Q: What sequence folds into this?
C-alpha cells in the first residue's frame, strides 16, 4: 500500500530496474573502498554528536579550579559525559581506519592496475579524496587544544610558512593569521566540520557516479567464466538485495571491531596531555604523518638553497616538497603505465614485474621514512639512517623485480597485462 | 545560391548580440575574481595578534613557568650547578614568546660565543622556543659529567650547548637560541637585564 503510494509518485520501480539491479563484481578487496566509506559514515555520525558539544574557542575558562582554554575544557567535559569518551574514541579510531582503508584501497588499485584506461579519472578523484582525508585528520588534531594538539599544529604552521613566495600568505590564510593566535581554532573547527566533510561528500559522490558508469575491474576468473558461458557482459551480484546485505553486514562487523578497539584502547587522552603549557614532551605524530616526520629528521639542518625571492629550507623540502613529490608520482602513474585498450579485468601483480617492484620499493621507502621518526630511540645517526632508507628501497626494488622476472620466465609470458 | 542576410538592428552599432553578451560575461567574471582577492586578503590577517613577539623588558623578575610554584619568583639559592628551569617574566606569562630556559652552569665552563656579561654567578638564560619549528626545549642533565649536560628539543632532536651560547650541536635547528641577560638581585631573586640578543622563535 505505502510502497504503491510512493511508487505512483516517484516511479521507484523504474529506479529499481535501472540502478538497484546493477551488477557488482565480487572480490574481497573490493570491500576496502567500502571500508573507507563506512568509516566516513561513522565519523559523520559521531562527529555530529561531538560537534554539538564542542566549543571552538581559546577563551580561558575555569575547569576544576584551573584556568584552561574553553575548547580543551569542552573536550574534557565530553569525556565525562555518559558515552562521551567512547564516542570520541570511536571518532578518532574511525579516522585512523578511514586513512588506513584509503591507503589499502589505493594500494589494491595500484597493484591490479585498475587505474588504467578508462579509469584514470577515478584514480585522480581517489587521490583527491586521500588528500582531503588527510586534511580532515590534520584539522581535527588541533580541536581538543591539548598540549599535543597545539605543538603538532604549531609545527605544521611553521612548515607551511617556510615555503618560499607563497608560504607566508597561505599559512596566514589557513591558520587565520600567525600561530599561535586565538583565531586558529574557530577556523579549523569550521574547516573540520563543514568545508572538509562537504568536499569529501562531493568527491565521494563523483567517485561513485564514475564507478557506476564504468563498473569495477573484474577478477580475471570472470573472463574464462564468460567465455565458457558466452554472452554475459558482467558477472557479479545485484546491488539489491545481495550486495546491500553484504555491505551492511560488513559495516556492522567493522563497527563492532571499532567499538571494541575504542572500548579497550585509549587514544589521544587529552587529560594526560593537559592544556597547552610550557615544556614539550617527546611526541610523535599519528602514524599517517610519521613518514613526513621521519623524513624531516633525515634532512641535514643546513641543507637549504637560496632561490630568487626566498629560501628553500629543510622544512620545505621535508614537509611540502617530499609529500608533493610523492603525490605527483602517484598522479603520473596512469600516464606512465598506459594500456592501448580499455582494461576491464584486474591485472595479476605477479605478471607485472616492473610496476609491482616499483610499488614495493615505494612502500618500503615510505615505511623506512616512518621508522626514521624513531632514530632518537634507535640511536641511529640521521646520515646512517638515510643510507639505510636508500639501501632498503633499492633492495626492495631489485629483489622483487628479480624474483618476479624469474617467475615470469618460468611461466612464460603468454599473458601480458 | 547564397541568400542575402537580412539587415539586423545590431549592425548599426557594430557589436553583435553574442559579442556583447560575451563581453558582459567576461567583465562580470573578472569583477567577481577581483572580489575573491579581497576576500582572501581579509581571510589571511596580517602580522598583528599572533606569532612570537617577545615583551620582556630589563628589570622584569623571573618566575617559574610551570609546576606547583608556577608564577612564584625564582630564588637563586634554589638552583645548583647543572639545574635548569623554564621561566617567564613576572606578569607576562601569557605570551609564549617570553618563555626562557634559565640554567646554572659552572662559570669556568662558559666558552665563546656565550656573552659572559649577560650571565651572573653561572646563571645563563636563553629563549626556550626552538628555532626549528617552535617546540619548547628541554634540559638533559648529565649527572656523571655536569658540563656534558645540554638542551634538546624533543620534536626533531635539535641539540644546543648552553655553555657555548646555545650553539646548535646537532639536529635541524638553523640558528642558536637567543641569549638574554639575567642578574641575581640582592634579595636572591633573578631579574632580566636585557632583551633577547637574537631572533626568537622558528626561523622560517
A:
Amino acid at each position: 500500500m505505502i510502497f504503491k503510494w510512493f511508487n505512483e509518485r516517484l516511479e521507484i520501480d523504474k529506479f529499481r530496474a535501472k540502478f538497484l539491479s546493477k551488477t557488482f563484481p565480487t572480490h574481497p578487496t573490493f570491500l576496502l573502498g567500502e571500508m573507507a566509506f563506512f568509516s566516513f559514515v561513522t565519523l559523520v555520525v559521531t562527529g555530529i554528536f561531538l560537534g554539538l558539544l564542542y566549543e571552538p574557542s581559546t577563551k580561558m575558562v575555569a575547569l576544576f579550579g584551573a584556568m584552561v582554554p574553553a575548547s580543551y575544557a569542552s573536550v574534557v567535559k565530553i569525556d565525562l559525559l555518559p558515552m562521551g569518551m567512547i564516542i570520541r574514541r570511536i571518532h578518532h579510531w574511525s579516522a585512523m581506519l578511514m586513512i588506513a582503508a584509503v591507503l589499502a584501497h589505493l594500494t589494491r588499485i595500484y597493484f591490479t592496475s585498475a587505474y588504467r584506461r578508462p579509469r584514470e579519472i577515478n584514480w585522480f578523484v581517489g587521490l583527491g579524496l586521500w588528500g582531503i582525508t588527510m586534511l580532515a585528520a590534520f584539522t581535527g588534531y588541533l580541536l581538543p587544544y591539548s598540549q599535543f594538539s597545539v605543538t603538532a599544529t604549531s609545527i605544521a604552521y611553521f612548515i607551511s610558512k617556510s615555503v618560499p613566495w607563497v608560504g607566508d600568505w597561505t599559512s596566514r590564510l589557513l591558520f587565520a593569521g600567525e600561530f599561535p593566535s586565538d583565531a586558529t581554532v574557530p577556523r579549523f573547527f569550521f574547516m573540520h566540520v563543514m568545508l572538509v566533510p562537504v568536499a569529501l561528500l562531493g568527491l565521494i559522490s563523483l567517485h561513485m557516479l564514475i564507478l557506476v558508469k564504468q563498473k569495477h575491474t573484474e577478477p580475471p576468473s570472470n573472463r574464462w567464466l564468460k567465455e565458457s558461458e558466452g554472452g554475459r557482459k558482467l558477472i557479479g551480484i545485484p546491488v539489491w538485495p545481495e550486495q546491500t546485505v553484504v555491505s551492511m553486514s560488513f559495516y556492522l562487523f567493522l563497527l563492532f571491531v571499532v567499538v571494541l578497539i575504542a572500548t579497550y584502547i585509549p587514544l589521544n587522552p587529552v587529560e594526560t596531555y593537559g592544556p597547552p603549557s610550557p615544556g614539550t614532551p617527546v611526541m610523535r605524530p599519528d602514524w599517517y604523518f610519521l613518514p613526513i616526520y621521519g623524513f624531516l629528521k633525515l634532512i641535514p639542518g643546513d641543507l637549504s638553497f637560496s632561490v630568487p625571492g626566498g629560501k628553500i629550507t629543510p622544512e620545505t623540502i621535508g614537509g611540502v616538497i617530499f609529500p608533493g613529490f610523492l603525490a605527483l608520482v602517484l598522479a603520473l602513474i596512469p600516464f606512465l603505465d598506459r594500456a592501448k585498450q580499455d582494461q576491464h579485468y584486474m591485472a595479476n601483480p605477479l605478471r607485472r614485474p616492473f610496476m609491482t617492484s616499483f610499488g614495493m620499493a615505494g612502500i618500503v621507502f615510505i615505511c623506512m621514512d616512518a621508522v626514521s621518526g624513531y632514530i632518537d630511540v634507535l640511536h641511529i645517526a640521521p646520515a646512517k639512517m638515510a643510507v639505510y632508507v636508500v639501501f632498503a628501497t633499492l633492495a626492495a626494488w631489485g629483489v622483487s623485480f628479480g624474483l618476479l622476472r624469474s617467475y615470469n620466465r618460468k611461466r612464460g609470458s603468454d599473458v601480458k597485462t | 545560391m547564397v541568400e542575402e542576410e537580412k539587415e539586423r538592428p545590431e549592425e548599426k552599432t557594430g557589436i553583435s548580440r553574442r559579442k556583447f553578451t560575451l563581453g558582459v560575461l567576461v567583465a562580470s567574471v573578472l569583477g567577481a575574481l577581483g572580489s575573491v582577492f579581497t576576500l582572501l586578503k581579509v581571510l589571511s590577517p596580517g602580522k598583528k595578534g599572533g606569532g612570537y613577539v617577545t615583551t620582556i623588558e630589563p628589570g622584569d623578575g623571573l618566575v617559574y613557568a610551570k609546576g606547583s610554584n608556577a608564577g612564584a619568583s625564582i630564588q637563586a639559592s634554589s638552583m645548583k650547578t647543572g639545574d635548569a628551569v623554564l621561566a617567564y617574566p613576572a606578569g607576562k606569562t601569557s605570551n609564549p614568546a617570553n618563555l626562557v630556559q634559565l640554567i646554572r652552569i659552572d662559570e669556568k665552563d662558559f666558552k665563546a660565543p656565550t656573552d659572559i656579561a649577560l650571565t651572573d654567578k653561572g646563571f645563563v638564560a636563553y629563549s626556550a622556543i626552538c628555532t626549528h619549528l617552535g617546540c619548547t626545549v628541554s634540559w638533559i642533565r648529565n649527572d656523571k659529567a655536569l658540563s656534558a649536560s645540554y638542551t634538546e628539543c624533543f620534536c626533531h632532536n635539535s641539540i644546543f650547548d648552553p655553555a657555548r651560547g646555545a650553539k646548535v650541536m646537532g639536529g635541524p635547528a638553523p640558528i642558536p637560541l637567543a641569549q638574554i641577560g639575567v642578574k641575581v638581585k640582592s634579595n636572591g631573586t633573578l631579574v632580566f637585564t636585557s632583551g633577547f640578543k637574537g631572533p626568537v622563535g622558528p626561523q622560517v
Q: What stands out?
A: Residues 10-43 of chain B form one domain.
